[in-house]
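Exercise 3.2. Students should predict the tertiary structure of the chain below and write it as structure tokens, then compare their answer with the key that follows.

Predict this chain's 3D structure.
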Amino acid sequence: MHYDDSVRAAFALSFRRLAQVALVKGDGLPPPDVELAGALDNLSRALGDLGLHTAALAQAREGVEIRRRQVASAPGGYEAMPADAVVNLAAHLLATGDTAGAMEHAHEGVALYRQLAAESPHGSGPDLANALGTLGLCCARAGRWAAAREAHAEATAVLGTPACPPQTTISWLGSQPTVRVRI
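Answer key:
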């Protein structure tokens, strides 16, 4: 299997961060669990780029679970649940065929980004549009065409241009879209 330089770099960064997490003892740095969760999220993205969706899903799921425990143990603590990790998990669930699970996490990611947009309207538009695009893909995969169109229309309105996650195409032929996702 051929790995391009960007994938090699992503793996190297992820493994380096995982190794660093083992050494972190404090010193004003983010809690080690938060760093580990971030490294697992990065690793899941790299695995997904390689088409290793089951392995990517396992890493993404573990990263989100770590962050949920962190948020639950210290509400208002270090950081809130990162919406991008939840949307990433939704994409991996969709890629492995768990449409219902993907839709649940996509809805959660959209809600988190809406909350961020309410707090800081100028900072999360593209991310909210991406989350809405992922939600639209989940709806399309579930055969909920009107909801898919609605999510993509909202993403377009937020962004001002058509919005889909990277490497995603939707062809509207008649009343049913053809969805091609490369996560």
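Discussion points: Residues 166-183 have pLDDT under 50 and may be disordered. The first strand starts at residue 168 and ends at 173.
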